[in-house]
UniProtKB/TrEMBL annotation:
Family label: Belongs to the complex I LYR family. SDHAF1 subfamily.
InterPro entries: Complex1_LYR_dom, Complex1_LYR_SDHAF1_LYRM8
Record's keyword terms, sorted: Chaperone, Mitochondrion
Record flagged with keyword Mitochondrion: yes
Gene Ontology biological-process annotations: mitochondrial respiratory chain complex II assembly
Predominant place of localization: mitochondrion
Cellular component aspect of the GO annotation: mitochondrial matrix
Organism: Cladophialophora immunda
Compartments (UniProt record): Mitochondrion matrix
Name the UniProt record assigns to this protein: Complex 1 LYR protein domain-containing protein
Stored CDD domains: Complex1_LYR_SDHAF1_LYRM8
Amino acid sequence: MRHSGLQREVLKLYRACLRAAGKKPEVGPLLSKPRHICQAVISHSTLLQQATRENFRNAARREFRKNQKVDKKDFGAVEALIRMGARKLELYSSPGVRDIH
Protein backbone atom coordinates (compact mmCIF):
# COMPACT_ATOMS: atom_id res chain seq x y z
CA MET A 1 0.00 0.00 0.00
CA ARG A 2 1.33 3.42 -0.93
CA HIS A 3 1.08 6.21 1.59
CA SER A 4 0.26 9.82 0.86
CA GLY A 5 2.76 12.56 1.62
CA LEU A 6 1.02 13.45 4.89
CA GLN A 7 0.88 9.81 5.96
CA ARG A 8 4.62 9.51 5.31
CA GLU A 9 5.22 12.64 7.42
CA VAL A 10 3.17 11.18 10.28
CA LEU A 11 5.11 7.91 10.12
CA LYS A 12 8.40 9.81 9.95
CA LEU A 13 7.46 11.81 13.05
CA TYR A 14 6.38 8.65 14.90
CA ARG A 15 9.67 6.89 14.12
CA ALA A 16 11.62 10.01 15.17
CA CYS A 17 9.75 10.02 18.50
CA LEU A 18 10.60 6.38 19.13
CA ARG A 19 14.25 6.96 18.18
CA ALA A 20 14.43 9.96 20.51
CA ALA A 21 12.99 7.84 23.33
CA GLY A 22 15.80 5.35 22.82
CA LYS A 23 18.36 8.12 23.37
CA LYS A 24 16.98 9.15 26.74
CA PRO A 25 19.19 9.42 29.54
CA GLU A 26 22.38 7.48 29.70
CA VAL A 27 23.69 6.59 33.13
CA GLY A 28 27.46 6.70 33.65
CA PRO A 29 29.38 4.37 36.00
CA LEU A 30 29.98 5.40 39.60
CA LEU A 31 33.72 4.99 39.97
CA SER A 32 34.18 6.47 43.45
CA LYS A 33 32.02 3.92 45.30
CA PRO A 34 32.92 0.35 46.36
CA ARG A 35 32.27 -2.23 43.63
CA HIS A 36 29.25 -3.95 45.24
CA ILE A 37 27.52 -0.62 45.83
CA CYS A 38 28.30 0.46 42.26
CA GLN A 39 26.80 -2.75 40.88
CA ALA A 40 23.58 -2.28 42.86
CA VAL A 41 23.29 1.38 41.88
CA ILE A 42 24.12 0.72 38.22
CA SER A 43 21.56 -2.10 38.10
CA HIS A 44 18.97 0.22 39.66
CA SER A 45 20.00 3.04 37.30
CA THR A 46 19.66 0.74 34.30
CA LEU A 47 16.14 -0.16 35.40
CA LEU A 48 15.32 3.54 35.83
CA GLN A 49 16.85 4.28 32.42
CA GLN A 50 14.70 1.59 30.81
CA ALA A 51 11.62 2.89 32.66
CA THR A 52 12.39 6.44 31.51
CA ARG A 53 12.74 5.32 27.90
CA GLU A 54 9.53 3.35 28.20
CA ASN A 55 7.76 6.45 29.58
CA PHE A 56 8.82 8.42 26.49
CA ARG A 57 7.73 5.61 24.16
CA ASN A 58 4.38 5.30 25.93
CA ALA A 59 3.82 9.07 25.77
CA ALA A 60 4.48 9.05 22.01
CA ARG A 61 2.18 6.08 21.47
CA ARG A 62 -0.51 7.72 23.60
CA GLU A 63 -0.39 10.95 21.58
CA PHE A 64 -0.55 9.18 18.24
CA ARG A 65 -3.37 6.88 19.36
CA LYS A 66 -5.29 9.84 20.76
CA ASN A 67 -5.29 11.44 17.32
CA GLN A 68 -5.69 8.24 15.34
CA LYS A 69 -9.33 9.00 14.51
CA VAL A 70 -8.57 12.32 12.80
CA ASP A 71 -9.86 12.07 9.23
CA LYS A 72 -6.92 11.63 6.88
CA LYS A 73 -8.64 14.01 4.45
CA ASP A 74 -8.67 16.80 7.05
CA PHE A 75 -5.32 18.15 5.86
CA GLY A 76 -5.38 21.23 8.08
CA ALA A 77 -5.85 19.21 11.25
CA VAL A 78 -3.23 16.62 10.27
CA GLU A 79 -0.69 19.32 9.37
CA ALA A 80 -1.36 21.15 12.65
CA LEU A 81 -0.88 17.92 14.61
CA ILE A 82 2.37 17.22 12.75
CA ARG A 83 3.68 20.71 13.59
CA MET A 84 2.63 20.33 17.22
CA GLY A 85 4.25 16.88 17.39
CA ALA A 86 7.48 18.18 15.87
CA ARG A 87 7.63 20.98 18.46
CA LYS A 88 7.04 18.49 21.29
CA LEU A 89 9.71 16.19 19.87
CA GLU A 90 12.19 19.06 19.76
CA LEU A 91 11.35 20.01 23.34
CA TYR A 92 11.48 16.47 24.71
CA SER A 93 14.70 15.69 22.82
CA SER A 94 16.48 18.31 24.90
CA PRO A 95 19.07 16.77 27.26
CA GLY A 96 17.48 18.66 30.16
CA VAL A 97 14.25 16.67 29.86
CA ARG A 98 14.91 13.49 31.85
CA ASP A 99 11.48 11.89 32.18
CA ILE A 100 7.88 12.22 31.09
CA HIS A 101 4.66 10.77 32.44
